[in-house]
Amino acid sequence: MLNSILKFQSQLFREIFSRIFHFANNFNFTDGHKMKLFYTVSWLVLVSFCLAWTKEDYEIFGLNDKVTHDLGEGSTFYSWLDLDRSATVQEISKAYRRKSRQLHPDKVGGSSKSARKTAEERFQRLSLVGNILRDQSLKRRYDYFLDKGFPKWKGTGYYYSKFRPGLVLTVFMLYILVGVLQWVALKISRSQDYKRIVNLKTDLKNSAWGGSAVPPADGSDRKIQNDANGKEFIVSASGEIFLVHDGERILIDENDVNVNPSIKESVLVTLPVYLWNISLGKVLGIIDLSPPPKPVSESEPQEIKKKKKKGERIELPNGKVVYGRPNARKRK
User: Fold this and answer.
1) Taking the mean position of all CA atoms in its chain, how far away is CA 205?
2) Cα 145 from Cα 316, distance rounded (Å)
3) 8 Å CB contact between 24 and 33
4) What is this structure's pTM?
5) Beta-strand relationship, 232-235 and 241-245
6) Among 80, 84, 57, 55, residue whose Cα is nearest residue 69
7) Average pLDDT of adjacent 10-residue blocks, the chain of 332 residues
8) What is the pLDDT, as a whole number, of residue 259?
9) In terms of Cα–Cα distance, which of 2, 112, 122, 113 is closest to 57?
10) Which fold has domain 2-159?
11) Euclidean distance between CA atoms 314 and 320, whole angstroms
12) Where in the chain are all domains bearing CATH 1.10.287.110?
């Protein structure tokens, strides 16, 4: 049983590392980020090993289960040998010899094979009990679990079953876990969006300027058309790139992507707010999580502020969806 447990743990950790690095490769993590991820996961694995039961613990758990099953619930190694927990090594050895003479398989005599087999197994357990109680280190471990309680076998390992979370607590814990994971995934997704826009702008500049990092000497704008979807882009001499949409220029800026999303954007906040808004919020007031509008320059006429349009939803050639900044539109 112990070998199967250790094998299961080894396979589990291998699978964890495999999935972690597969995840990192899919998101094009840099070598530095991969190393940080590796060290973090390794630290967590080491902590889990430190908190896991030792080989000796598993032996004590298994032997305790067999003794209680054989002698009855509440039986202990001490009660089997008629000893107190304060017994010395000499007293333990003396009690063990006395009990071993009583339970020796030869006492069974001409009984059936099954009875002799049962006697031999009981005698083996008695021998293991004597070894544990005479070893001070193992005795301390046994006494510790005798005081704190023994974990129960749950199919893949020994676990304590004193605390059993109810349905509400379980749902709440899952909600917190899903919310945190969704927020982390959102941060990773935003970072990848930022990189995609930067790479797109670099490719467009290379195409417009003939592979040079220097704009054309005449300072003219260059128009580039994407053959895949027919979208047009204009690369200005200053390096700014515009998407031509419905006769308007929409500035493409990677800085519009918020690479550090707030926790307010995760389901940890959006779900409670949504439930509030469709219930008590209709009476007590709606909670608005939308970001505040960008400040408008005081020199801009008040009429223009009122007629200011919201940025349109634009799909870039690489599949990324952006929203054009209204103040970045220019008539072609």
Assistant:
1) 40
2) 63
3) yes
4) 0.43
5) antiparallel
6) 80
7) 50 60 58 56 51 79 92 92 92 94 80 83 93 94 90 74 71 90 89 88 82 76 75 84 84 85 86 88 83 57 41 57 52 44
8) 84
9) 2
10) Helix Hairpins (1.10.287)
11) 8
12) 2-159
